[in-house]
Design brief:
three-stranded mixed sheet
Length: 147
């Protein structure tokens, strides 16, 4: 079993708050010392109450899935003797109404572009096996396409 922690810090800073016109900007702090400026998504809460430059939870969710897939893929490639020179994924998450009529992340599409040292690449089975990890840990469709 593993435990993961983060600290989320938000302060009112003399805003009225009860009028619902307060900043959603906050900080995510992680155990390694990194602090990340965060906010609600401007797609959910309009600017100026959201900060477009900050990471929002929806973006972080998509990035976490993409990062997890990349790490799993790299481990499979290394184990099978393939040298990966570069991995880039321009992943996309879709917020939509779910079956219960609630706004939710309903689909994530991973679009990795992988550059190998050699011409041969393990596209078939490695790609399929690496996506299985996500199917077991996330309850939404995760699609894998090539860019």
């Amino acid at each position: 079993m593993s435990e993961y922690t983060s600290t989320v810090v938000w302060q009112r800073d003399n805003q009225i708050f009860t009028d619902n016109q307060y900043s959603r900007a906050h900080i995510w702090q992680f155990d390694g010392g990194l602090s990340v400026p965060a906010s609600s998504s401007p797609h959910v809460v309009p600017i100026p109450y959201s900060v477009a430059e900050n990471v929002d939870p929806e973006e972080a969710f998509v990035a976490a899935l993409s990062s997890c897939h990349m790490l799993f893929f790299l481990a499979i490639a290394a184990k099978r003797g393939f040298v990966v020179d570069e991995y880039r994924d321009e992943a996309v998450g879709l917020m939509d109404t779910n079956k219960e009529g609630k706004l939710a992340m309903t689909k994530v599409t991973l679009r990795p572009l992988v550059r190998f040292l050699e011409i041969r690449s393990p596209v078939g089975s490695s790609w399929k096996k690496s996506i299985i990890f996500h199917i077991n840990s996330v309850l939404l469709p995760i699609l894998l396409t090539r860019k």
